[in-house]
């Protein structure tokens, strides 16, 4: 009996909390946000999406957190860093004080999982719920979704797909902010 239990314990995979979100804005992209001043509030997350373990959606109602594979640091901190870097690379001036910015942006992660439901393609899903404040207009709330296929279905594949989905979300956000900025100049 002791030998049997010892064998089960030895077969568990080692924890791999070593993946990072490193979505990068394309270097040759136009500076769509030049002149825009933006204050970014710290990114928050709905549970369980703020946890370090990868989250899997197994059915319409069942989600599971991977106890062995996940992110090096909480994903909200990484998305916050990526969001700051992306908007800065797009030409936005990032303000440290919300009262000195034309735009304020509050972001909440409302989905960050791998969709494993039967009949669905295995894909990474990232959704940000955003509140955009503009000193010249009313506050607006909206969501942006990004999806990317996972291949291969392992830690590296999940991390790569999640980065692609996050890059899609950040690209859509940049376009939305550029549109808002152009509308404000009319």
Brief write-up:
The protein is of the alpha/beta class. Strands 1, 2, 3, 4, 5, 6, 7, 8 and 9 form a nine-stranded mixed β-sheet that branches. It is elongated and about 55 Å long.
Task: Lay out the secondary structure.
Blueprint: H1 2-10, E1 16-19, E2 37-40, E3 44-45, E4 53-57, E5 63-71, H2 75-89, E6 93-94, E7 103-115, E8 123-134, E9 137-149, H3 155-185
How is this structure best described in words?
The protein is of the alpha/beta class and 186 residues long. The chain has helices at residues 2-10, 75-89, 155-185; strands at 16-19, 37-40, 44-45, 53-57, 63-71, 93-94, 103-115, 123-134, 137-149. It has one domain (33-180): Rossmann fold (3-Layer(aba) Sandwich), CATH 3.40.50.10610. Strands 1, 2, 3, 4, 5, 6, 7, 8 and 9 form a 9-stranded mixed sheet that branches. The longest helix has 31 residues, at 155-185. It is elongated. The termini are far apart.
């Amino acid at each position: 009996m002791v030998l049997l239990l010892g064998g089960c314990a030895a077969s568990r995979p080692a924890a791999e909390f070593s993946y990072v979100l490193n979505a990068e804005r394309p270097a040759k992209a136009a500076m769509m946000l030049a002149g825009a001043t933006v204050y970014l509030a710290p990114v928050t997350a709905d549970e369980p999406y703020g946890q370090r373990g990868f989250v899997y959606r197994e059915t319409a109602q069942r989600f599971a957190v991977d106890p062995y594979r996940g992110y090096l640091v909480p994903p909200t901190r990484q998305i916050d860093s990526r969001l700051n870097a992306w908007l800065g690379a797009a030409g936005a001036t990032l303000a440290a004080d919300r009262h000195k910015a034309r735009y304020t942006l509050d972001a909440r992660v409302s989905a960050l999982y791998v969709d494993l439901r039967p009949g669905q393609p295995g894909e990474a899903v990232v959704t940000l719920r955003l509140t955009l404040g503009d000193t010249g207009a009313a506050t607006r709330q909206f969501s942006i979704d990004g999806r990317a296929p996972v291949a291969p279905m392992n830690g590296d594949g999940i991390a790569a797909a999640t980065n692609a989905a996050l890059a899609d979300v950040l690209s859509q956000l940049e376009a939305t902010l550029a549109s808002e900025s152009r509308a404000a100049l009319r």
